[in-house]
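@channel sequence for tomorrow's demo:
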Amino acid sequence: MHCSNRLATRHTLWASTSLHHAACTAQTGWLPDTHCGQVRHFTMLPALLKQAGYQTHIVGKWHLGMCNWEYTPTYRGFDSFYGYYNAYEDYYTHAANGGYDFRDDTSVFRDPSNEYFNYLLTERTVQLVEKLDTSTPLFLYLPYHLCHGPLQVPAKYENMYSDIQNSSRRIYCGMVSMMDESFGNITQALDSRGLLDNTLLVFTTDNGGPVQYGANNWPLRGGKGTFWEGGTRGVAFVWSKNLLSRTGYTNNEMMHAVDWYPTILHMAGLQPGSSIDGVNQWDMLSNNGPSQRDEFVYNIDTIPNSTAIRYKDYKLLTGNPGQFNDWYPVPQSVSSANLTSTDTQGRVEWKPQLYNIRNDPEERHDLAESDHQTLQMMLGRLQDWIKSGVTPQNAQVDPRGDPKRWGGVWTPGWC
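structure tokens (generated this afternoon):
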């Protein structure tokens, strides 16, 4: 199964999309966010929507910086925040990387019952919807913890899949079902307030599933943390009662996560600045029109020389594409699937690889040797991208952020 964990709406821009490309993400392991100061002048999506009169709320995962209060949700355009700062945490203890991490706005939220996280997130979201001023447009962003690791779920959801022998897969499927139930409850709450009558709902994943933890991307190659399509090709749907010109179709055009930013702004009657990477894809989504982009960067890491780019039908990979590089069927046995991981420390030499993604989405036929002309064209485009890049700003571990210095709680204010 492929987990999706984010939402948007017009009167209700119910956005379960990923904002991770909008700001810097260093925050765990006591990493300083001082380099984020160079991007603080960028106005994030919720702040622009708020300026346009929207209510803006986030329930769930932040993961966009927290060493300074100015990087946290209610300083970046959200009216309210209920969730956690880090990349992940224990679903019951709400601890991550040696510290407690659960906030209600800027205050530490203590959960004495250690209740499963998703119950709390859904309960708060429903309560928020029930109290909304329905005369004011809404942007609701739900970056849920599900279906992120660790693999934990209440027994009743795991038991729904008692026929699955593999424990990781069984728990993972239970997590997906719990997420589905939660979004059903939230959708019902929105409907009961009449908010679905003028709403765009966006449901999207931000990456492929982690094959080593029960997820499955078959027949695509690889998984989360790799440049293969199994790790980068996300699934999504948009829904509305009255805002879509065409419905009931599948669109396979090219879209990047950064495109949600100008697309959602367009829905709210706003225009982004000119110096952004994203493009407005509303015609593609609402009318099954053509994509407004023909290329994007998967990633360019000049330190280990590990890159991947897409141009039209072609995809170029150089360096190490990640740890799990094969095709992994759904795990059936009690033990984990037959996973083969490639060493990521540079002891395996990777030559440039070229694939025609439209004809070969499973990335089984490397064209680097047979189509030298296209390979050279793609290598040239990669060099153009590299020239336009900025110097990597890798931060060192900063002990000032150690939760032990802050009463055992992940806390802003140390940079």
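heads up for whoever presents: The helical segments are 45-51, 117-131, 155-158, 167-192, 229-232, 260-267, 282-287, 372-387.
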